[in-house]
Amino acid sequence: MFLVTIVSMTRRGVPLFLVVLLSLLVLASAVVSIDSEGHNGPSQHSSHPRVPVGAPQYGFGGYQLYPPKPVTSLSGEWTVPTIAASSGSGDASTWIGAQASNGAFAQVGTVENRLGGDRYYGFWSDVPKGFLPQYEIAVAPGDKVEARMALQPSGWAVTLDDLTSNTSRTIHTHYGSKDDFNSCEWFQENPVYSQFVHTNYPTLSTVAFESMMLNHREPTFNYQEAQTLSTQNDTFFVPTHVRHDAFSLVAAKGSALAFLNDVYIEDELGAEFFESATQGIEPGNITTNTYIAGLAFELPLLRSQSWPTHVRKVMDRYITDQQRLESYMQHWLQEAPGERRGNLESVVRRLLQADNIADRVRSHLGLPPIYD
Questions:
Q1: What's the rounded Cα separation, in Å, for the pair 341 and 32?
Q2: For residues 125 and 1, is the Cβ–Cβ distance under 8 A?
Q3: Which residues contact 324 (CB under 8 A, 6 or more apart)?
Q4: CA 111/CA 131 separation, integer angstroms
Q5: Strand 60-65 and strand 144-152: pairing?
Q6: Full-prediction pTM beyond 0.70?
């Protein structure tokens, strides 16, 4: 909804200032090599809230589908989450949305925030509105709501019904009529505004979606399409498997939580590298050094954990592979510019191999796979 770029979030034993310091050290070490390279490659910014290919979608959790036919309608119901009395300040939203490969995007849902006071309201947004929430109707915590989207000849019509108060409103956005929407989401979000500037996530009652429909039919969900929500507050929320057209987001615990905490830095610092490389764009020295720094930071954390027996074997393979990947990336960074560009395809294959091993770990821990 509000996201522009991936941002740093504190983690157990990984304070924000250390993340910033790592980035600054990488920047300082890369200046000379960037000058010798001539340029650092084009900057890539998607018009949709940025969600990096190959890394968990920080700030978003739920299900995203890529149906075989274009998305022309979708809907879902949920109970507006309640902010706990003991919660600190924070910002959250619950929504459904549709997007196209060209960056077109529209959404409708509810906002739940405590920023100087509690605010709950229904909202809609799209690209022309800069992804910023536009007020639609008043809602209250605990209200049952239904969100609906329908693509009409003039554009998206977005509707929010408060089934508790019997309040409803439809907004005709006049946007998206010429776009092919190839994916849709049922998401909970911890909004982010810009790099290193983000909101806390409030303590909420359980977030749960139900009565989900796509193109007037009940969609089929696969756990491969689930995404874990990572928040600013050192908490991760894992989607359950869809049962009877419903799912909820539950807090990660135990070894699953330890793994998500430990790999956070590598995922976050490596997101830009992975995104550029998998699009065939050679990452610059800063981006490459940042990714290598993330790998170096991750490995000691993983080695320090006492992993359960059912995870230990695949975890050992993952740690060994990440260590080899760090050495591989160091070697690739030292290659001449022309040689590096020629070997980019090999780098991508190596990254995807690492992701495959990571997905085996995540499967053993009961987590959704890495989004890719």
A1: 19
A2: yes
A3: none
A4: 13
A5: unpaired
A6: yes
With H, G, I as helix, E, B as strand and everything else as coil, classify residue 176: coil
DSSP string across 329-342: HHHHHHS-HHHHHH
Report the interhelical angle of 254-278 vs 16-37 (nearest 10°): 20
Residue type, 2: F
Chain mean position to CA 261: 15
Of the candidates 209, 210, 189, 193, the one whose C-alpha atom is nearest the C-alpha of residue 201 is 189
pLDDT tens track for 171-211: 999 999 999 999 999 999 998 765 545 688 999 999 999 99
State the angle between helix axes of 344-364 and 309-334 in degrees (0 to 180), rounded to the nearest 10: 170
- Domains delineated in the chain: 16-45+256-364 (no CATH), 60-252 (2.60.120.1270)
Q: In what order do the strands lie in the sheet with 229-230?
A: 167-172, 155-162, 144-152, 73-79, 207-214, 246-251, 236-239, 229-230
218-243 tens-digit pLDDT: 999 999 999 999 887 778 999 999 99
**Token pair 């039919």 in the structure block, residue:** 217
| 352 token code pair | 């995807």
Indicate the DSSP class of residue 11: B
Task: Compute how many other C-beta atoms are within 10 angstroms of the C-beta atom of residue 367.
Answer: 24
Q: Which two tokens stand for residue 342?
A: 């020629």
